[in-house]
Amino acid sequence: MEKKTYTFLVTSNRRGKTYNFTMSGAWIKASIFLGLVFVVVIGAAVVDYVGLLLQSGENKLLRAENAHLKRQFQIVETKVNSLEMALERVQNFSKKLKLITNIGEEDRSLSLAIGPMPKAGQGFSRGQESLEERAPASEFLIRDSVFMQRPPLNEMRGELSLQGGRDYASLSIRIDRAVQDTQLKEQGILELWETLSERQSLLNATPSIKPARGWFTSRFGYRLDPFTRRPVMHYGLDIAAPPGTPIYAPADGVVSYVGFESGYGKLVSIDHGYGVVTRFAHNSRIFVERGQRVRRRDVIAAVGSTGRSSGPHLHYEVRVNGVPVDPMNYILDE
Q1: How far is the C-alpha of 69 from the C-alpha of 29, rounded, in Å?
Q2: How many helices (H) and strands (E) does the chain have?
Q3: Please, where are the H alpha helices in 144-197?
Q4: Residue 314 and residue 260: Cα distance in Å, rounded?
Q5: Cα separation, 51 vs 187, whole angstroms
Q6: Is there a contact between 265 and 304 (Cβ–Cβ < 8 Å)?
Q7: CA nearest 158: which of 49, 51, 69?
Q8: Residues paired with residue 269 on neighbouring β-strands, in sequence order
Q9: How far apart are the first and last CA of the chain?
Q10: What is the pLDDT of residues 74-122, one digit of tens each?
Q11: Which residues touch 77 (CB under 8 Å, ≥6 apart)?
Q12: CA-CA-CA-CA torsion for 201, 206, 208, 212, nearest 10 degrees?
């Protein structure tokens, strides 16, 4: 069978020459097919390139949103940490109020304010009061349910990825818990304040301030004696300060002793009633007399280094029914 051929004539207008090309039908079909394939490939490449440009712009936008969300998350997390620290300070303050005012465990206000004492190695426990009369926690969880869902995230597109223990779900739970604790603490503190207001005379006679400005050099408890270097019980709190620094009465009371004692040097004692006595040792000067009534923040003496002392400081003791206790529990402004 004779193959079908096609002849193409090309004529130049300037030179007047004619060129002819003869191609078989099979070659023409193959050329047309290859041309169509080339056009399809070029078209697909153009479409893919345009798609990549669009996706690149979208990725830039997602990365910007991702960075913004991370900054917002860090800000919220910082605020939650501050809230939790504030709640812990309220917890410690409530414990001190309980201790210095001798409120029994049966008082409902105390139970609301501080809850059960934590065990070793545990954090502060949450309140045990019913939340039926307060806003239910479910409301917070419903509003935050969008954070509790964990949709699949495309990290290649720059979406915000979960970081172990620091995702929105855990943060939402912490916020919900902090809000519940805040409600309990707020109600508990208000009821505790009402109870304490009824004991105004007890509060006025309860040591509650730092008696001198300075820095703590030795706490209550066992320590190495600065002279013998042997472990001994230290029954007070040492506050180092320049000589002559004023010493203030930590509460209302009556001066019960003024004199010099071996080891303590110039000593002042104040009887605050309710079995509470405070003692101030190593003074350089004493400005009160025995039997004198004093009020909180009255200047009673000046810091010195009399007696058995390694340098100018105030030795401050709190005794309850004759038993020395840790004075730090009676300093609410520290």
Answers
A1: 59
A2: 6, 14
A3: 145-148, 168-197
A4: 15
A5: 59
A6: yes
A7: 69
A8: 257, 279
A9: 112
A10: 887 787 777 778 777 777 777 776 666 665 444 433 333 334 444 444 4
A11: 166, 171
A12: 110
DSSP characters over 120-154: TT--PPPP-S--TTS--HHHHHHHTHHHH------
How many residues are recorded in the chain?
334
Residue type for position 270: I
Global pTM value: 0.47
Residue in the structure block whose two tokens are 């402004």 = 333
Structure tokens at 284: 């350089």
Q: Tokens 């350089």 label which residue? A: 284
What's the burial of 71, exposed, middle or buried (CB within 10 Å: 0-12/13-18/19+)? exposed
For the chain, give the percent of residues with pLDDT over 70.
75
What's the one-letter identity of residue 253? G
Q: Which two tokens stand for residue 283?
A: 């003074």
C-alpha distances in angstroms, 161 versus 56, 141, 155?
19, 21, 7
Here the tokens at position 227 are 């002279």
Q: Which two tokens stand for residue 50?
A: 């345009």
β-bridge pairing 265-273 and 215-218: unpaired
- Please answer whether residues 58 and 157 qualify as being in contact, where contact means their C-beta atoms are separated by less than 8 angstroms: yes
